[in-house]
Write a structure and sequence with these properties.
Strand content: 15-25%
Distance between the termini: 34 Å
CATH architecture of the largest domain: 3-Layer(aba) Sandwich
Shape: elongated
Order of helices and strands: HEHEHEEHEHEHEHEHEHHE
CATH topology of the largest domain: D-Maltodextrin-Binding Protein, domain 2
Mean pLDDT: 88
């Protein structure tokens, strides 16, 4: 889907005021525009991990450019890649490292996140080893009493194919998805969190940023440490948490016009407060 936009360089006072309002953009070659110079619609699809963040950045971008509309849709990283390649979206969201076969795309990092294991808040289990997580997900441990919990069957919650959180989880724990013995298969992070929050005997894995945000809102879940390191935004930031990933937005061709203006803004310090409010880690503090 193409965007409609008007491009005219302007050295006017209006442009300078707009730049001051937005902050320094993240690209040395970034163009600046007055509120009247950008218009059109951006369609952005892909990773559910990134969607709330990009939606909030989009709202602020729209507030600076009233003639712009930013439409954010989820569906997983695979959808983001496919939609951009097929021209169904202007920008894709990919919540993992880019793959070798995706070198045809242009990727721009906007933040970092981790993937953490979650239990219901009232589950007495406080920690699991990597080996125990693998045993639970492959069906070798099926009762919480075998890992220090209550005598209750474990409900294994797994991610659907095409979700980058699944790929990151499987890669770290060295599990094949065909070996996972799942009782529930979910799509986005919020669905996973709701499933675990509604089942005291469930185990799942989701974006640390999303989980921390929901915990702060009173959702009854808890994040478990991985490899002896607490799962938190802070440990992702300082590089000690072992399951972390870059969050990308991608395009099919080098971005220009409205698309480039949005990407520059999403990579700028002007949105670091939004990134932190969403419990993600800015790429450059």
């Amino acid at each position: 889907m193409s965007c409609v936009f008007r491009l005219n360089r302007c050295g006017s006072l209006v442009t300078l005021l707009t730049l001051a309002l937005l902050g320094t953009l993240g690209s040395a070659t970034a163009q600046t525009f007055s509120a009247e110079q950008l218009s059109g619609k951006l369609v952005i699809t892909g990773a559910s991990t990134l969607a709330p963040l990009i939606a909030e950045i989009g709202k602020r971008f729209e507030s600076h450019y009233p003639k712009v509309r930013v439409d954010v849709q989820t569906g997983g990283s695979s959808r983001g890649v496919a939609d951009v390649r097929q021209g169904f979206a202007d920008i894709g969201m990919v919540s993992r490292a880019m793959k070798a076969e995706e070198k045809d795309l242009h990727a721009f990092s906007v933040a970092r996140d981790g993937v953490g294991v979650i239990l219901h808040k009232e589950n007495p289990v406080q920690a699991l080893t990597d080996e125990q997580v693998v045993a639970i997900y492959t069906g070798k441990i099926i009762n919480w009493k075998d890992v220090g919990g209550k005598d209750a069957p474990i409900t294994v919650v797994n991610k659907a194919e095409g979700r980058s959180t699944l790929e990151v989880f499987l890669h770290y724990f060295k599990i094949r998805n065909t070996d996972v013995k799942a009782h529930v298969v979910i799509g986005d992070n919020e669905q996973g969190i709701k499933t675990v929050a509604g089942n005291r005997h469930a185990i799942g894995y989701v974006s640390i940023g999303t989980a921390e945000y929901d915990e702060s809102q009173g959702v009854p879940i808890k994040l478990l440490s991985v490899g002896g390191v607490a799962a938190s935004t802070e440990t992702v930031r300082n590089g000690t948490f072992p399951i972390s990933r870059p969050l990308h937005i991608v395009t099919r061709t080098p971005p220009v016009g409205l698309t480039k203006a949005f990407i520059d803004y999403a990579q700028s310090k002007a949105v670091h407060d939004i990134i932190k409010q969403q419990y993600f880690v800015p790429m450059v503090d």
